[in-house]
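[recover] target loaded
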């Protein structure tokens, strides 16, 4: 069994979604709400709950670190 290392920021933000869950919730990242230099924000609806969410997707070219991403 492999144990996963937990990063410090994960303690404050324990719930994580898989890429597949976010892809489905945003219908393939279709409805863009806004765009920054390193990322885009998409509207989504979580399956099962119907809860509307905003999902930030970092650009593959981004040099932004995980701490900066979580801080936003």
């Amino acid at each position: 069994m492999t144990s996963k290392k937990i990063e410090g920021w994960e303690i404050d933000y324990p719930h994580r979604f898989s890429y597949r869950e976010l892809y489905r919730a945003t219908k393939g990242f279709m409805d863009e709400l806004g765009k920054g230099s390193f990322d885009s924000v998409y509207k989504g609806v979580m399956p099962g709950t119907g809860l509307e969410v905003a999902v930030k997707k970092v650009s593959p070219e981004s040099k932004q670190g995980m701490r900066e991403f979580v801080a936003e």
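[recover] notes: Residues 28-62 form one domain.
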